[in-house]
């Protein structure tokens, strides 16, 4: 019998790549979709990967426990991946209570539904390197203390610890993946890599002249979403649930990431890049650098796609999209 996976956040970047990966492994894939007035738009990432017809989308919301209980009864999942969240750090200062409710307490709703209806299902929580915030160690591992710097990171920290707590309290097979930034052509346009690759493509095509960014001195450990969803799956295949850092072990400034994108289309960054204070954050995470040694040793996981390859793939995808739109 095919294994059954239930994914919250299936319409997001990771949800799309995880669906594709699980379908390749022979899973039946179910996804939670929140109701929107824009019918037929939510599954655009699944369509991009050509998997929209192969997954089953079901109505639910992380803030509605009864919807999650009903979904667990209906799907009877072997594995539950909780990827849904208000995931944009900058928005979390504008909507701190919603962020706490969905990104934080929403995790408890999913865990409660699992505990009450599907207690033998394996559970994955999408935790974040943002929890390290003002870093307490040069390279962050599973033992590095946390210091969150945004309402988003505070909410994620709650989600992380409630996952650990349900594992320890109720014996759930609940794992927390502390994933560092991961990107792809399916990344939301508001995140810096995609904003840059879309902006560079627009400048190349003569649609825009400048690209406006905030703090380009910030450093991130960027990987590819395709590599990172494999690590999520590997965590749930272990006999014992645990927490893992997933990262490349290399950190790069926003400035240098930007330079890769401009260079790919033969343009100089200088002359196009404008620093705009509107994009600075009330509190910044200056640098993140993950130590993925545990994931390598225990899961046999190593990233395969470099930052350079990924940024070039993203620029090419944006050039294709924009060319299609304007033709
Ligand atoms: P996205 O922002 O692309 O996707 C978020 C998903 O959550 C979307 O499917 C969205 O649905 C859904 N969602 C939001 N609110 C609700 C709600 N109330 N009920 C049900 N679903 C909801 O995020 P990513 O794919 O990039 O990230 C996946 C997860 O991993 C997130 O939890 C994120 O915080 C976390 N993470 C991401 C990292 C990254 O670098 N990408 C790194 C570390 C952690 P809709 O389509 O309707 O908006
Ligand atoms: P982040 O990603 O906050 O790390 O969260 P984002 O790409 O938004 O920012 C990365 C860094 O770039 C700086 N920056 C800008 N960011 C944006 N979005 N727009 C700009 O114009 C800009 N200019 C500079 C930011 O200040 C920051 O330092 C992502 C999300 O996916 C989270 O959900 C996830 O948990 C973490 O990664 C790990």
TrEMBL record:
One Pfam family this sequence matches: GDP_Man_Dehyd
GO molecular function, one term: GDP-mannose 4,6-dehydratase activity
Transmembrane segments: none
SUPFAM superfamilies: NAD(P)-binding Rossmann-fold domains
Enzyme Commission number(s) of this protein: 4.2.1.47
Similarity remark: Belongs to the NAD(P)-dependent epimerase/dehydratase family. GDP-mannose 4,6-dehydratase subfamily.
Protein name: GDP-mannose 4,6-dehydratase
Natural source organism: Azorhizobium oxalatiphilum
Name of the gene this protein is made from: gmd
